[in-house]
């Protein structure tokens, strides 16, 4: 079914739903394909190629809601689905916040976003398999690598149609690809594992196999011969990947559901200063080629660049239509999660940040969940490199870092200039004063 046919199907179903008594209806039609290959020791360990089609239907009858979904696009099946949803909605409790978006606005032209690359679709499976093998071959040339833990290439194509009874109907296509590898190094009790991967909407943005292999080798070998350290309170330097982890936790604390249910320490903090003057956090769904770029969210609400925190002041929560109504605010177009959510870069190089540390930890990896949105508390197992007098001394393992996100945001003393938009949630290297490391 092509895009024109999907749009006609959406219009037909909206009309049918209205005739059957639905006050409001929203449709989400998604179709696509994906390819995944995993390589270990030069052999294919897993190979998957699949197509998918699905439609989600939300009907509202006098503030009563029901949802249904199907991968059968026949008229008879979909009419039966809508009939059943309407009947269930009539039996549900009322929820005055549950309606579809009130306003219908034109979003940005999807072509401007550059999130679709036909070359990914045209790339033959053999080429995808070979590039995954190539990464492993390159990495294993380094004799410090004792075992490949798996390399892989994945690609996907998707077409999204959103329509609802307030008159909105929109569609766009997107692609994505990813290449990465995981490696082991060391022997006996000194075995470490780490990885690296690159993701992009198009082939041009994907890092080359030698770059990915080289970074994976660097990341795993720098953890060899780790030492334990004593429990202490010191500055922690978050490398860019760890800053992204921290921002992911922040995003969850800013999401509308957590805010209106009072399950976030940032509830009722809108307009207040929650971070240092040097903290500026933005969500930009219009970034060309961005992994989170999109013209509108899953409800058809146009997505826009949003300054979330400016100079440490919280400007906005991240809301879908339901949470916005619960909070007497407007949707920010976040029914699909983050766009390109990032901490703006500072002026310091990562090397300058490390040089500024008299004694502390360069944080490289964490394990475990260890985050509590209601309080902002963080406690995670950690791996990194110990710093003394501005120099990296040795790797560190078997420690736990702990702190509070609210205090961390206020205690970021340096922000790096190494921001790369290689993740949907991204940030540069940062230095956080006074966190606790629990060790010996």
Summarize the structure.
The protein is an alpha+beta fold. It contains 11 helices and 18 strands.
Number of domains: 2
Question: Helix amount, in percent?
Answer: 10-25%
The first-to-last residue Cα distance is: 62 Å
**CATH superfamily of the largest domain, called what?**
PmbA/TldD superfamily
Count of runs of 4 or more consecutive helical residues:
11
Report on the biggest sheet: 6 strands, antiparallel
What is the CATH top level name of the largest domain? Answer: Alpha Beta
Architecture of the largest domain, CATH level 2? 2-Layer Sandwich
Unreliable spans: none
Identify the strand order in the major beta sheet. 3-2-1-4-5-6
User: What does the overall shape look like?
Assistant: globular
Order of helices and strands: HEEEHHHHEEEHEHHEEEHEHEEEEHEEE
Backbone CA Rg: 24 Å
Q: Helix- and strand-based class?
A: alpha+beta
Average pLDDT value?
Answer: 95
CATH topology of the largest domain: PmbA/TldD fold
* Total number of beta strands: 18
Percent of residues in beta strands: 35-45%
Write a structural description.
There is one protein chain. The protein is α+β, with helices and mostly antiparallel strands. The protein folds into 2 domains: 219 residues, PmbA/TldD fold (2-Layer Sandwich), CATH 3.30.2290.10; 215 residues, no CATH class. It is 25% helix and 38% strand. The chain has a 6-stranded antiparallel β-sheet. Helix 5 packs parallel to helix 6. The longest helix is centred in the N-terminal third of the chain and has 17 residues.
């Amino acid at each position: 079914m092509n895009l024109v046919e999907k749009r006609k199907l959406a219009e037909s179903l909206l009309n049918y739903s209205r005739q059957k008594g639905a006050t409001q209806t929203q449709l989400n039609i998604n179709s696509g394909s994906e390819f995944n290959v995993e390589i270990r020791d030069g052999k294919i360990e897993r190979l998957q190629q699949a197509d998918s089609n699905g439609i989600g239907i939300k009907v509202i009858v006098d503030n009563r809601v029901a949802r249904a979904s199907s991968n059968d696009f026949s008229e008879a099946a979909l009419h039966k689905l809508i009939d059943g949803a309407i009947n269930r909605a009539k039996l549900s409790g009322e929820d005055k916040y549950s309606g579809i978006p009130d306003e219908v606005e034109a979003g940005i032209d999807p072509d401007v976003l550059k999130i679709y690359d036909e070359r990914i679709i045209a790339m033959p499976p053999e080429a995808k398999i070979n590039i995954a093998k190539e990464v492993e071959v390159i990495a294993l040339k380094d004799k410090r690598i004792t075992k490949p833990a798996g390399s892989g290439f994945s690609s996907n194509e998707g077409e999204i149609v959103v329509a609802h009874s307030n008159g909105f109907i929109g569609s766009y296509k997107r692609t994505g690809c990813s290449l990465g590898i995981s490696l082991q190094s060391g022997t006996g009790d000194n075995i470490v594992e780490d990885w690296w991967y690159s993701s992009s909407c198009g082939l041009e943005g994907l890092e080359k196999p030698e770059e990915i292999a080289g970074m994976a080798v660097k990341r795993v070998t720098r953890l060899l011969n780790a030492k334990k350290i004593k429990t202490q309170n010191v500055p922690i330097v978050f490398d860019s990947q760890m800053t992204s982890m921290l921002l992911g936790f922040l995003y969850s604390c800013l999401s509308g559901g957590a805010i209106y249910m009072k399950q976030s320490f940032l509830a009722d903090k809108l307009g207040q200063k929650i971070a240092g003057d040097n903290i500026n956090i933005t969500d930009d769904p219009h970034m060309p080629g961005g992994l989170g770029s999109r013209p509108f969210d899953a409800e058809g609400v146009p997505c826009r660049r949003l300054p979330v925190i400016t100079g440490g002041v919280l400007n906005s929560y991240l809301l879908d239509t339901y949470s916005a109504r619960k909070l007497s605010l407007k949707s920010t177009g976040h029914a699909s999660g983050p766009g390109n959510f990032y901490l703006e870069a500072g002026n310091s190089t990562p090397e300058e940040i490390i040089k500024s540390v008299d004694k502390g930890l360069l944080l490289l990896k964490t394990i475990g969940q260890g985050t509590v949105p209601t309080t902002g508390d963080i406690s995670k197992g950690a791996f990194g490199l110990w710093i003394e007098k501005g120099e990296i001394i040795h790797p560190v393992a078997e420690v736990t870092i702990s702190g509070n996100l609210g205090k961390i945001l206020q205690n970021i003393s340096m922000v790096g200039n190494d921001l790369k938009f290689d993740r949907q949630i991204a940030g540069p290297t940062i230095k956080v004063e006074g966190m606790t490391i629990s060790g010996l």
